[in-house]
Amino acid sequence: MNPITVILVLAATYSQVQTAPSEPTDDDMHVTVDGTRYELYPAKILEERGIHIPEIPRDENAAYVYFDAINITKPADDELDDALRSATNGVWPEGETGEKLARYVDENTAAIELARKAARMDHYAMPLFRGESDSLFEALLPSCEGHRRLARLLAADAVRHADAGDFTGAIDRLLTAQRMGHQISHGNTVIEGLVGISIGSMAGKRLAQIAETHEIDPALLKNAVAKMNASSKSTLQFEELLRQEANFSRNILNDFFEAPGNVIALTDLSPIDFSSHTRVVDDGWHRLTVALRRLYLPDRAMQRHLDRFYDEINKSIAPHADGTPGTVVDHEKVLSQVPAWDVINANVLPGYDRTYEVVLRHHSDTERSKLRVAIEAYREENGRLPDSLDALVPAYVEAVHADPMTGADFDYSPLRTESTAPHGLEEISYEMMESLRQQRLAPSVLKPRESKWRRYVARYIDTYRLTTSQRNSAEAILRDIESRAADFESKHAATIRQSIERGDDDAARRESRPLDVLFEELTRRLDRLPTAEQRSVGEAAITKNPATDEVADR
């Protein structure tokens, strides 16, 4: 038996000998969710692990109102589940099934009202629930499925209200679901983030669909857009999820040395039975065992592997100067740098490729839904779709932002698609996600660069308050750079496209590098135009509102 195995066997033996403290009986430490009583993870231990859950009195914390709503939600059989899913997607079922669903929604009126109350509350902090041990790997979030169920009820009730002509009620319920998704997404775990953005995206899509399929008072639609816009200003960012998961990863690594039985069993690589998941008793024997484990399994090296992994992800998501979102590096490629002996990091470090795309898709869906509702308000007042999205500013939206998936303008045209959405603002399918990702890799090849480079120049002119003469110079610089970029593309676009189509992202980025160099030249030449006074004013504006700085604009 090798030394590492001996140490781990000793660790398992000690953990089985020690008896865990009895569960607290204080009601403040327990919550019932969907019929099961759970123990709250002690706030003190979470703080020590770098996880802060605000101290909010229960009667002021929306999370506990959602628990109450979940607890009184009636169960649904398979037929009702299918009907509810259909209504959530915007189609109320016909006949007896529709009548059965209507009765079910009515039976859950009290739960819907509690959800509406919770969404209007100022404070929300979802607690973490304790598993069998103190390992964060076992922390529980039993309410996530209940939140999904509440969101489906709200969406179904909205569709019913819209079909009955009660558009105020329909919009209220969908905005409620959107606020609920927003609250959940800012929790302490990636799971909460993904559940929250899923709920928020669903609500926005249904709101847009209802606006497009009914004749609704434009004032009501404008009010809805204003609320959607206010919510979107603090929407979940991928960097937030990354920080949360990095903290969890570090805690899981520490858990391995404190109580390996709770972690190794999850890797399916250990021949030893580590099924005992007791809570650690901190005594002299335990501290000696931990020190011996760290001797045979170098914790500092493992920590370096973890830090390097997250450093690579952070570098890859940094936005480009022209506004193009970053592209997460190949997860398998980065993970391959972790040595084979580091079984914990090799099995615990998460893949971010998909998560990053899902978050960007949510940001894009949010913008698309808001613009679609604004377009319907415009149509109701003007009798036609706007010729361009710029026509919506400022009467219907504060500003038209670039597509968060690509950093380029939405490819809008005043035509309806089969889905009722205007062309260029359709809901993002899985096929579209890949197409948009490819545009992000080499946007100037797959989509005209002008919407991005020209936007950069326009914002630069506004930020530094350039004079007419300086504006003319800026436009001349842009024309020169665009001309040289077009010449490069005419010679190399086919090669770059082939690299993208065969999935060789690294090659596509290398081959597109001359375009990045041209943009860098554009920024340098523009930076020579402002006077010292203009530069001072511009830099002050950027410091006050970083979002106006194109370099930081996502």
What would you say this structure looks like, in words?
- The structure is a single chain.
- The chain has 554 residues and is mainly alpha-helical.
- Strand 1 (30-33) and strand 2 (36-39) form a beta hairpin.
- The chain is globular, with a radius of gyration of 27 Å.
- It has a two-stranded antiparallel ribbon with strand order 1-2. A two-stranded antiparallel ribbon has the order 3-4.
- Helix 4 (78-88) packs across helix 5.
- The protein starts with a helix and ends in a 10-residue tail after the last helix.
- It has 23 helices and 4 strands.
- Mean pLDDT is 83; it is low at 1-26, 262-277 and 547-554.
- It has helices at 3-17, 43-48, 62-72, 78-88, 95-107, 109-120, 144-163, 167-185, 190-213, 218-232, 238-258, 261-264, 284-296, 299-317, 331-335, 343-348, 353-382, 430-441, 443-446, 450-464, 468-501, 505-527, 532-544; strands spanning 30-33, 36-39, 413-416, 422-423.
Brief overview:
This protein is an all-alpha fold and 554 residues long.
List the helices and strands and how they pair.
Blueprint: H1 3-17, E1 30-33, E2 36-39, H2 43-48, H3 62-72, H4 78-88, H5 95-107, H6 109-120, H7 144-163, H8 167-185, H9 190-213, H10 218-232, H11 238-258, H12 261-264, H13 284-296, H14 299-317, H15 331-335, H16 343-348, H17 353-382, E3 413-416, E4 422-423, H18 430-441, H19 443-446, H20 450-464, H21 468-501, H22 505-527, H23 532-544
Antiparallel strand pairs: 1-2, 3-4
Helix pairs in contact: 1-13, 3-6, 3-7, 4-5, 4-7, 6-8, 7-8, 7-9, 8-9, 8-10, 9-17, 10-17, 11-14, 20-21, 21-22
Keywords:
554 residues; two-stranded antiparallel ribbon; globular; 62% helix; 4 strands; disordered C terminus; two-stranded antiparallel sheet; 23 helices; single chain; mainly alpha
